[in-house]
Amino acid sequence: MRVAAPDDIAQISVLLEHSFAYNAAHQPSYYKEASEKGQYPRSVIGSVNGDIYIALDEEVVIGLIHVEERSTPPYETYIPHKYAEVVDLFVDPTYRGQGVGEALVSAAKKWAASRRLDYLELFVLSENDGGIRFYERMGFETVSHNMRLLLND
After folding, report:
1. Domains of the chain
2. What mean pLDDT do residues 88-99 have?
3. Is-contact 118 81, C-beta < 8 A?
4. Of 67, 74, 77, residue with least CA distance to 119
5. Within 10 A of 6 (CB to CB), how many other CB atoms are there?
6. What is the pTM for the complete model shown?
């Protein structure tokens, strides 16, 4: 487990493409499979507000977590605080159930704690039952629901 470096971009991109396909399978009306040419991981690796941690088997990237520092909006109604958003978490299906996801979340927790952030937050597709169970086992709790009203039937 380590922070991703520019030399990891090609392997990260392949794993992200699998993640995109996974989301497309869960919500094909809103997500589609896409190629990743490295622009996304490159922008994170060069950022001061986020990092990508990668899990490796030998020299092969088998999992990743992208974590970003966020702040509450500057409105009177919010109690100002900073938190970490898990933007992406994906583990190669071959390696699931072996502690890789737990290790990635642990790395994100340490990253957030080192920045004195209040909590980790993430968005998970409602159809992703396995992901929801995983996050609940890791201690995540539902604090809100994202709802949608279609306007064009």
Report:
1. 2-137 (3.40.630.30)
2. 94
3. yes
4. 67
5. 11
6. 0.91
